[in-house]
Amino acid sequence: MSKVKKVSAAVLGASILLSAALPLSASAAAAAPVQAGQFQSATVDRNAKGQLVLHWKTDADLGAAKVYWSTSPDNIEKNGKLLARTYTKFGGYVAADPKPGYRVYFLVKGGNGDTITTAERKVNLQGAFNFRDLGGYKTTDGHTVKWGKLFRGEELGHLTTADLAYIQRMGIKTDVDYRTDAEVNALADPKIAGMSYVRTDEGNPGAGYNLNDMIASGMLKDKASAVAMMVAGEKQMVDNPKFYKQLMELLNDPKNIGLVQHCTAGKDRTGFGTAVILLTLGVDEQTVMNDYLLSNVYRADANKAAIDAMKKQIQDPDVIEALTALMGVQKEFLQAGLDEMKTKYGSIDAFIEKGLGVTKEERANLKNMYLE
């Protein structure tokens, strides 16, 4: 994932005030001539006050900038609204949420006409921590994954009424659930108008294990045992990829554009599915890994609360370390899956074609549908 260098709050605030005070005059343009160049990356984060903080990076001073917003990621400059006029050299802009209760996408346009689209990666929900957009990632051939078309998430049964309305307004068409029968029976997905629900492979019976069983059996005796379990699980998803074959078939159907795939925590089965999607679209392995590891960021508070509760019942520190490893993600987990693709099929591309059954024509179609 491209990393945008953080601008200090003081500098960014001063820049914003300056941009508001200065008109976009000919003299200002002369003082900062527009150079040939382009946007390299852009991000949006929500601060503690609920404001949206945009950051962008360019390879040159692109002069004056216009910031547009819309509740749709498509044709933002044409169909959206102008939020602000500023300068690309400031590197960012802070604004109140222009439409609370809706997902918002932004387009920043430089004075030389170059543009970049961006949005919050994390979807702003109260009942889900790890629900996020796969848009904005660059491919190795210079394209970008479209915003608002591909999402990853966790169990949806804790979504609030406001969350459900928020998601419905996002226009997600298909909900792909990787969970086992036991998981679904414990917390079924809510029905959302306009969204079709798909159980992978017509339901996943699962292995029937729970944490208590694994601890009692010695499967989770320490951190090393947990890591070994997760590594084996990643390899198994490569060796038996039936759920992800189905995912690729769903993605190739235009009626499913606007798809969320999820499991319980949204990190392992969903993490592998996300990796498969991004790799198929041509995103490089390091970016795919960075996205995978973001689950540790978004699930940090929930995982800490769960571990703190477990410490009251489990006194063995080795088991606590095992559970901590199990609840997070590590580079070793996904890397085991990537290595298994290469070992078993010769390359990731060969896994996509032979393991997942994605033909060259279908892969080209996926790129045409989900890249810009």
Largest sheet, in brief, is:
5 strands, mixed
Radius of gyration (Å): 22 Å
Beta content: 15-25%
- Contiguous low-pLDDT stretches (5 residues minimum) are 1-31
Q: What would you call the shape? A: globular
Counted by DSSP, the helix tally is: 15
Structural class, by secondary structure, is: alpha/beta
Distance between the termini: 17 Å
Work out the helicity level: 40-55%
Q: Kindly report the spatial arrangement of strands forming the biggest sheet.
A: 8-9-12-10-11
Number of strands: 12
Following the backbone from N to C, one meets helices and strands in this order, namely HHEEEHEEEEEEHEHEHHHEHHHHHHH
The average pLDDT is 89
Task: Briefly summarize what is shown.
The protein has 372 residues and is of the alpha/beta class.
Keywords:
4-stranded antiparallel sheet, alpha/beta, 372 residues, 5-stranded mixed sheet
Description:
This protein has 372 residues and is α/β, with parallel strands linked by helices. It contains 15 helices and twelve strands. The strands form three sheets. Strands 8-9-12-10-11 form a five-stranded mixed β-sheet, covered by helices on one side. Strands 4-3-6-7 form a four-stranded antiparallel β-sheet. A three-stranded antiparallel β-sheet has the order 1-2-5. A hairpin with a 5-residue loop joins strand 1 and strand 2. The longest helix has 17 residues, at 223-239. The radius of gyration is 22 Å and the shape is globular. It starts with 8 loop residues before the first helix and ends with a helix.
